[in-house]
Structure formats: structure tokens, C-alpha cells
Amino acid sequence: xxxxxxxxxxxxxxxxxxxxxxxxxxxxxxxxxxxxxxxxxxxxxxxxxxxxxxxxxxxxxxxxxxxxxxxxxxxxxxxxxxxxxxxxxxxxxxxxxxxxxxxxxxxxxxxxxxxxxxxxxxxxxxxxxxxxxxxxxxxxxxxxxxxxxxxxxxxxxxxxxxxxxxxxxxxxxxxxxxxxxxxxxxxxxxxxxxxxxxxxxxxxxxxxxxxxxxxxxxxxxxxxxxxxxxxxxxxxxxxxxxxxxxxxxxxxxxxxxxxxxxxxxxxxxxxxxxxxxxxxxxxxxxxxxxxxxxxxxxxxxxxxxxxxxxxxxxxxxxxxxxxxxxxxxxxxxxxxxxxxxxxxxxxxxxxxxxxxxxxxxxxxxxxxxxxxxxxxxxxxxxxxxxxxxxxxxxxxxxxxxxxxxxxxxxxxxxxxxxxxxxxxxxxxxxxxxxxxxxxxxx
Length: 442
What we know:
The chain is mainly beta. The protein is about 10% helix and about 45% strand. It contains 6 helices and 27 strands. Mean pLDDT is about 85; it is low at about 1-50 and about 430-440.
């Protein structure tokens, strides 16, 4: 049980976990068999971070150094919402703190401040203005490839965003990148580490911009000879409504690249996977049709193997002739195989309201389905395709019904304002044997 809970905690702390809706909880059927109890609300796993004395002291000094009418701001980027970042920015062995604050009543709303650690306290070194309306992202990482971290900031400017980077050397702040427009940027991997997309040992990044006609421009940048150079640029031959998710990292075994999840319209979406070869951006798949789905699905490392997977929506056996909106679905996740195709990794069931995700063991793919007599938001039965054996059930209870059933064979998954959603595994010995062979209770 301890190993399983560690995996759940790693998932919740990952970028993939942070994208999950507040009511979503992944339930492992194998854990049900072992009798382990899961917390149905990820919020219950979170505790406010305890401030050390040093952090508290720094925070108080920052508050004193900012104007009275200002307020400290956090970036909107959910991968790192810390207000204050502490790093040695210039390699002199002395730590600096970077922070941003807002002055809503001034023409320039966003300002940055750098403080330096001196004799157990912190001293303000400088402030600087950042044109923009909102702080979208705030990263401290080496993008100039000099071995020292830079301050990388994304801000919103009217209908678009702009990327700016600063280097702090000798007590002076230098803007090394100014206002590069983007809709999405991929500058680090899912662990927050710099990306080396072309394999030359230097960090680089990708920005994506969408023009008024919906065509996306994808551009690769790297810092060379005291400035950022555009290494490659391509314009898609398809149009998109928006790119709602952008990731960098391993896209196949020992292959680094980027993953873009894009909406084609209000309903359908697809995933673009790209890598860099000879400083050129190359699509992993020949056609967007290979990753197309009639839903909005987030890519991510769903099985914690370090490789990014993309999701598809597939019809369970027996549901092929049902009206599209009446169907129940399996959500399947694939990796690029490093050549011309995709390979299956895992699958899950989700209800239409996305209140929960039921992770199914990969070995069951193609062996189980959902009974066509199941009713959405009422009762769902999972069964073996060959034998029709019931393996698991999901049921929606009113609170009064749940008061009569709780503590029996049903286990609560999550609850809404007026219902409890619960699951149970089959009681027959044959079904239990089948489950034990196919589900892990790690």
C-alpha cells in the first residue's frame, strides 16, 4: 500500500496531476481488491507549506520594500506558483531573491525586484518594469547557456502573450530577450528542467503563435553569440482554434521533443508531437488524423515512466452502433513509437462530467467492455468480453440510498452536491480470480 500511495502522491504533484479537475480522482481497481482506502478528494492530500524562519524573514523584507499600494503576484502558470524564487543568479556564491509585484493604478502594472543575501539578511539591489497586464509565468533557469540561471517571464499583452528574459551580472540586470510574442511556450520539461531539443548540450526552447486565420507558427530558439537565434520555423498547413496544452520532455525512449494539444473546434482536438533533427522541427506523425479525437484530452506522463503519452477516445466493444452522444467510452493513452506509429500504454473510464477517472490495468485492453444495458450517471457494469462475467460496477446513489449501502460491498469514489458515486468488484470466485490475474494491488 505504501508504494501505491507514493505513486499517487507523485502523480498529484506532477504537472499532469495539477491539470486534473478538483473533483477528479484516479481509482485503481487493484487497490479495491487489497482493501486499501483512497482519499477521494486530492485537496485533502494538500497542506499549506510551512514557512521556515528564513523564508518568513525574506517575505517580510520583500513586503517592506514594495510600495504601499502594491501587492505581490503569483504567475498563472500552475507548474510553479511561488511568489519568491531564490537562486545564485550570477555564480558568485551569494544568493539572490527574485519577486514580482503589481501596481494596478500605474501605467506600468508589473514590476520586478531583486534582493541579495547579506550577513543573514536581505538587501534590495534593484527594481525593474515589465510591460504587461498579467504575470503568466515566472521561471528561474539557464536559457543563455552560461551556467547561471536567468529570470524568464511571460506576460499577457492584450490578446497575446510576450516572453522576456533577464540576466543578472555584476549588480546589473540585462534584458537578453525582449517581448517575444507567443500563445504557448515550451521552455522546460515536466520536472522544470531546461530542454535540449537538438542534442547539442545547450538549452533551447519553442514558442507557438496562432495568427488570425488559425494557422500556427512553431519556432525553435537558442542563445548564440550574445543573442537568441531562431533556429527553425514552420507554419502548419492546418488551422486550430487554440493550443490548450504544451509540454516538453521525452516523447519516446531516449527521444526529447515537444507535445502540443490543440482544439480544432469547440469539440474535437488532436495532438502534435515534434522533435528536432539537424536543427529542424519535424512532426512525429505524418497526419493529425493519427491523434484525432472527438474530445479535449490532456497529454501527460500517465504511467510515470518519464515519457509523454497522448490520449484517444475509443468505443468499447458492443457500443459501435449506438448514437455517438449515447455511447460510453474508454480513454486510451499511447506513446509515439519513435518511428511512424503509436503504441498502446494504458486505458481508463471517465464519466461524462469528468468527476472521476477509473484506471484499468493495461493487460485488460481488448478483454473487457461495458455492458450495453448500463445507464449513464446511474449504473455501469464492466464485464469480460468472452464470458460476460461481471468484473466491476459503478453506481450513483442518492444520499439516503448511500446511508443504507455504505459499509457494505460498495466503496465510495467521490460525491457531488446530491449524489455519491461508488464502485465494487464482482463477488463471484471466477471474477475474483480473473481480477487477481489482471489487476495489481501494488
